[in-house]
Amino acid sequence: EGGIAALEGLLLAPDAPAGIRVELAFLYYRLGSYALAEAYLREALADPRLDDLLKQQANTLLADVVRRNQVSHLSGSLMAGLRVQRNPTAATSEGRILAAGVLVPRDDRTRPKSDVDAHLWGKLDHTYDLGAQNEATVVTSLVGYANHFSSVDSHAYRPGNTDPFDVAVIAASTGIRFKPSPTDLPGLTLRPHLLLGQMLLNGHRYFVTGGLGIDGSYRISERLSWGGGYEARRFSYNARPDITDSERASGTEQSLRLRGAVETGVNRALIGEIGFIDRGAERRHLEFSGTEARVAYIFSYVDPVANSGSIWTTTLSGSALQRRFRGADPAIDPTIRRRDTEWRFSVLNSMPLARDIALQVQLEYTKTPSNIPNYEYSNLAGSVGVMWKF
Hints:
The protein is mainly β.
């Protein structure tokens, strides 16, 4: 905002450089004032003094700004990739497990086994500007995911199945995003919304879910913002012969997340998040409460391999999720209530191949210590995929 005030003051001079309007457009774009950004870009492009490099930057930004200024705006992304995992079924790494309170040797068929899967992920976002003074906009998101493991040769129900499951998920949310106090708190945005979703395992329905939520964000300054959300949803699981007591996992889940983000420098950001979850079920040993903490550091830099001038982005992240179950599972040990902590570390690198297409490479390690050996496991996964944004 200070930069805008200074640059607009320079425009009062009759011989103000042509590039000032381009700089102003970039600043208004950062603030989300797309109409003003478009106006300055068109004025700059109409100035014959504008050099070729700035003209190219202005035309690129103008195309994006025009889309954002539309009443109805559709955007999204699609990614296809391959992943290899050392232990995709989260099989225990222990040699002995508990059964009815007694330690017994683990069945050799349930040992950790590596596998490869192909996956497809997509997201659609639609916004519809209601033209209100509080910037009210209907925001709808649709997410889909599906994968297939090389070891899965049949989707028939098989009790005692030890192979990983092919997963298909679809989830949607829709609600109105608005600023409750655009004059006094212009940086505060809220969005109450509806939630719907469904998951399939090996082509058969596993659960459906629906509920309500509210999320919001508050931008304190250009570099610092806070956000979070609350969700309450119902999960209804189907009875399946290949998963014992699967329908007994049905229940209500509540979750609360708080997030902070700060720009630590040019093209560098630090994000921290803490979350709380409470999951109900029809069996006490399936109910749990949990706490999660996550931190991510994102930085961008010029392609270090080829002299292409493209910008690579790397994300380093780590998280810890602690789960505390409310009841003991008599089939495992009637005297012990499960407690475990899931540690997850990830490195993700995004490398542009074209303007809207990027190659993504990720390495992720998961380790879960538990007070019950049946649930103690680790997994190392590596994936590569191509993402298209539109």
